[in-house]
Write a structure and sequence with these properties.
Order of helices and strands: EHEEEHEHEEE
InterPro entries: Glyas_Bleomycin-R_OHBP_Dase, Glyas_Fos-R_dOase_dom, VOC_core
Protein name: VOC domain-containing protein
Largest sheet: 4 strands, mixed
Number of helices: 3
Helix content: 25-40%
Shape: globular
Domain VOC: 2-127
Number of strands: 8
Amino acid sequence: MKIKLTSVYVDDQDKALRFYTEVLGFARKADVSQGPFRWLTVASPEEPDGTELQLALNNNPAASAYQQAIFQQGQPAIMFYTDDVKGDYERIKARGAEFTMPPTDVTGSTIAMLNDTCGNLIQLTQLARY
C-alpha cells in the first residue's frame, strides 16, 4: 500500500491555492469543479507524482470545528519534512508567510511553525543527522 492523498481543511480554496503554490512552492496537481464541489490538490515539485495534498473546503460544521480546535491548541494540521529548515524558513518568510515559531532545535530535529492563512498551522521539520 501507498499513501497517495491526504487532506487539509481550508476556509477558502482560492486563497489556499495561492498560499500553497506561491508561498510554499507546491504545484497545482488537480483542480476540478462540479457544481458547488471543487477537488483541488497540490503536490511537491520534487515528487510531482508523489503524495497529493487536497485543499478541502471546511464547509461543514464538523470540519470547521476540528480545524478551529487544533489551531487553537497550537497543533499543526500538516507537517512537511525538509533537508534545510532554516533555508526554507528564510525563503518562505521572504514570500510573506507568518511564522509562529522560528527554526528551533528540539529532540532529534529542528522545527519551525507557520500560519497558512487558511485556518491551519504548518510544521516544517528537519531531522537531525547523527
